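Ops channel
N.P.: pipeline sanity check, posting one input/output pair.
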């Protein structure tokens, strides 16, 4: 029982995974195929509803046929958006909520309770989508809504003029099991085993990004146009004489030094900054800042990174590279980052050659 409770708690604490899982798919070349599949599924649902218009037990009356047509249009529109535009978190949430409403509306248009229950099975596909792309809170909201719609869809089997309570309970239970068990189990498995989409990007000692995680995320941060009011800042930090600390005091003290350094970096970076440990004692920060704050930020960095009172004392050589000019035609984000990193790394080594414990900056 205790193990089950732990699994449930880990599942409940699972963060939203839209960005991490989208990057996972993109890095492996699967994102386009995934978009095509989700869009194709939406279109297929629209075609199924279109065929229902020609059934004797399909939508009856002007109102329900209008609702059916509206859901068909929404399905086609969702398919086109998935195919033509890059997905965003806002669109993804809209897709989930819109799909739930559309499935409920589609079920309501069927004149037969068995047909309504079959329509409710489609809720399972939305639950599966949430399991991989979003968080348990959204999943619970989806499941509560889907369960209510399922019970209402089978209501006449339980209490209608030709009620068959045994059949109604059995059919509702089967549909409920389908729409609840599959998505929840899938998301719990992700929580227990961990996802390569989220763990392969993290340095296990500090919890910062690793080199791979930094390279995956830097495009998002550096993509918007660069101006003096929104410049790109790359900072390279290298601890001075870290090898001596490891050799003299041991690796446990060395690990503690690395952890303190990571905490100090968080003192002067914003939540939007990308902070990574890219080597044994080397860190990189990528951030968007106004040029007007660079001088003040340089002082904040120098103060925050001062480890003179540590035991053993520590210091760092720090290089900063700032770019205020927009990208040239044909110049990629990767090329801009590589140039900024090279410049920041160069001035960092200049600081180290002159005794360390310094901050050097260069405008690119």
């Amino acid at each position: 029982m205790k193990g089950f409770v732990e699994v449930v708690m880990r599942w409940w604490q699972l963060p939203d995974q839209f960005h991490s899982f989208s990057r996972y798919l993109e890095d492996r070349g699967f994102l386009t195929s995934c978009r095509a599949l989700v869009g194709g599924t939406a279109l297929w649902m629209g075609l199924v509803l279109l065929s229902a218009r020609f059934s004797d037990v399909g939508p009856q009356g002007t109102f329900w046929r209008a609702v059916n047509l509206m859901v068909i249009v929404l399905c086609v529109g969702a398919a086109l958006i998935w195919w033509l535009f890059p997905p965003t978190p806002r669109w993804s949430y809209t897709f989930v909520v819109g799909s739930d409403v559309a499935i409920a509306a589609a079920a309501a248009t069927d004149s037969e309770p068995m047909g309504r229950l079959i329509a409710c099975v489609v809720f399972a596909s939305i639950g599966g989508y949430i399991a991989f792309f979003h968080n348990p809170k959204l999943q619970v909201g989806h499941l509560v809504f889907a369960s209510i719609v399922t019970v209402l869809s089978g209501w006449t089997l339980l209490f209608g003029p030709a009620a068959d309570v045994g059949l109604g309970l059995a059919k509702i239970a089967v549909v409920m099991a389908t729409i609840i068990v599959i998505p929840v189990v899938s998301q719990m498995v992700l929580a227990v085993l961990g996802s390569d989409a989220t763990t392969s990007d993290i340095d296990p000692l500090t919890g910062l990004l690793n080199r791979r995680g930094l390279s995956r995320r830097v495009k998002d941060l550096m993509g918007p146009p660069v101006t003096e009011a929104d410049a790109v800042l790359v900072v390279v930090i290298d601890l001075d004489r870290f090898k001596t600390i490891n050799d003299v005091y041991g690796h446990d003290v060395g690990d503690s030094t690395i952890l303190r350094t990571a905490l100090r970096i968080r003192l002067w970076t914003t939540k939007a900054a990308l902070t990574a440990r890219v080597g044994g004692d080397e860190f990189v920060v990528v951030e968007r800042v106004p040029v007007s704050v660079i001088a003040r930020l340089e002082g904040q960095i120098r103060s925050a990174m001062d480890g003179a009172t540590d035991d053993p004392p520590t210091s760092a050589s720090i290089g900063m590279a700032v770019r205020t000019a927009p990208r040239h035609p044909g110049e990629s984000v990767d090329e801009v980052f590589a140039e900024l990193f090279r410049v920041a790394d160069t001035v960092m080594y200049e600081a180290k050659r002159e005794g360390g414990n310094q901050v050097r900056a260069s405008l690119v």
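N.P.: looks fine end to end. The chain has a mean pLDDT of 89.
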